[in-house]
Specification:
alpha+beta; 136 residues; globular; 3 helices; 6 strands; 6-stranded mixed beta sheet
């Protein structure tokens, strides 16, 4: 597991988060025997708008790797990890104009939920999944 973020500063931050059990866990989405980096997925165990026990899931794939089910599989795997670390509910926040990301959330077993209002007026559609039940 490495930090899929680009700069040395970001890499050090990700490494520090793992070493100190900080609120961020960053994973690379790798493909094939040569482990090509296809994207990244992050978990945040604390953050603005999250209730205690909620874990934010954010993912991104490079364009050439989209449409292959990689993001869905990654979301399922990090949800299992989040549950093992005490997360109770996973949250995916999707920009309303991004139906592909919403489809990933739904394929991974997330359901639409009412979003709390943001302080800055930014609107996201929320998808949630109970991590206290078995994830397959």
């Amino acid at each position: 597991m490495g930090c899929p973020h680009r700069g040395t500063r970001d890499f050090r931050y990700c490494q520090e988060q793992w070493e100190t059990s900080g609120p961020l866990r960053a994973f690379g989405i790798r493909v094939g025997a040569d482990k090509v980096l296809a994207g990244a997925i992050d978990l945040r165990f604390a953050g603005a708008g999250l209730a205690p026990g909620q874990v934010n899931v954010a993912y991104r794939l490079y364009p050439s790797w989209r449409g292959l089910g990689l993001a869905t599989r990654a979301v399922v795997l990090v949800s299992q990890y989040a549950a093992s670390e005490g997360g109770e509910e996973a949250v995916i926040q999707v920009e309303p104009e991004n139906p592909a990301s919403a489809a990933v959330a739904q394929r991974a077993g997330f359901t639409p939920a009412k979003q709390p209002p943001s302080k800055d007026g930014t609107r996201f559609d929320w998808y949630i999944r109970d991590l206290r039940v078995a994830i397959e």
